[in-house]
Amino acid sequence: MRKVLQQLKQYKRDTFQCIGLTALEVVMEILMPFITAIIIDRGLEAGNLSVVYRYGGLMVVMAFLALCFGAFAGKKAAAAASGFGANLREAIYTNIQTFSFSNIDKFSVPGLVTRMTTDITNVQNAFMMVIRVAVRAPLNLIFSFAMCLIINRHLSLMFLIAVVFLVIVIGSIMVVTMRIFRQVFRRYDDLNASVQENVTAIRVVKAFVREDYENRKFSKASRMLYDLSVKAEGLLAFNNPAMMIAVYFCIISASWLGAQFIVGGSLTTGDLTSLFSYIMSLLMSLMMLSMIVVMISMSMASIRRISEVLSEEADLTDPEDPVMEVADGSIDFNDVNFSYKHGSGKNSLSDIDLHIKSGETIGVIGGTGSGKSTLVNLICRLYDVDGGSVCVGGVDVRKYDTEVLRNQVSVVLQKNTLFSGTILDNLRWGNPDATREECIEACKAACADEFIDRMPAGYDTVIARGGANVSGGQKQRLCIARALLKKPKVLILDDSTSAVDTSTDANIRAAFAREIPGTTKIIIAQRISSVQSADRILVLDNGRINAFDTHDNLLKTNAIYQEIYTSQLEGSGDFDQPA
Fold first, then answer.
1. What is the C-alpha separation between 289 and 282, in angstroms, rounded?
2. Where does the ABC transmembrane type-1 domain start and stop, copy by copy (predicted)?
3. Cα separation values, 320 from 270, 317, 405, 536, Å
4. I want to staple 270 with a disulfide (CB 3.0 to 4.6 A). Which of 37, 222, 419, 474 is the partner?
């Protein structure tokens, strides 16, 4: 809760002003029945019109003030709640940007989306209700009860019975519904995941005619959410019957006992009239409090989920005095062990001792799950090692400023992503200050210029969301050009030429040798042809180094490499078949 409320920041003033204005509005409204009693007793029954006019005018002024206080309070509440919601979204988004891959792995993407949309909307609505209704209702309740005590202490004690009854009923409902709403929001995550997966992979769904299956899966998730929601709302429906029981009890008690007090002369007609007004005000306050209970029940589950993200601290942090310059592109793995679940004993990489000179071209090959992508993720410090060290430019990557390191270690990942905007906009992710000429040169090196020139708008062609209007090979080449614009000391291609033909692949590698000879290049590939011209080739097997040598030597000495080479040369078998 504290983490969430910290995001009020500049809207604290609006919040307190709203509370103050609401309190003044309540004071004005509470005094009106009291003045009504004076008008009845001293004016109408005594036949004194001057009292009626004088106190009637006072009531008009108080009503106008209550209206003004209420209007300004509403404006301040809207500003504070909307600003609070905006700050929460910004805080969550900013914190997510600091997450390492291991942090992101703890939260699903649909779960994060739900937190930034549905959960924050719930909290924003609840906050507005709290600073308006949750301030107004208790004050109204307290002041109304105080006025009832002033008018007639014996009658007022009847209200306590109704209040205790409602507190017990509403409290019981709140405890149960809060537990159900926690499950509801988890189901929202599942529903969002189903929608996101289906829409993202809609081409695959249609290609395999799986629409009916996806509809059934969505319907199942939707039905579970429906059942939980009905269960929660069914419990909350008991609020109204409980409230009506309390209302009828108070009205009947006040009518019966009030009539006896009037006959006995201990209560005037004006006092009973104002007493009924205070009774209704008191009960309306209780009704509003029950609505607040519903909102708080829903928002508490949301607050917990939002707090989880805000409280999550990045696993990877910069040292106090970080190294701000990468000397060269040399890479050293010194007895590295790594596991995605620290302490599990299931290493993805074990006993990796590897030394690469600056400017070398290194090929990496191995079966699925052999640890190729994991290996290169450690170079740019997307994860930290469990044991040993990874050094770039002779310095442990944990001693660098993370931004400095990643600017000098450019990675083209397996899953290539383009963003909405023009081709130039996407290329300048690599270097925001790159000129058009520099972008064109990078595209020539990545062999992307050939298809860009054929596009009607050339480099100003708009890329659809996710790169839907370019092919897989075109997307890969644009991502390579984007990485080249960073002018890195280390360039990592994680199977990022798999969708281009062998001729284009060869041209890209030739351009690398010509354009960036001093850059260390690590090429993960499925094809032998993509790595055979490398200075040395690393063969990984089950997270361990099986061999590290030249293409010619590996063909002579390494069984795994020989098997891969033979299977691809003959056009039979599969890369992943064991030697």
1. 11
2. 19-298
3. 74, 9, 15, 37
4. 37
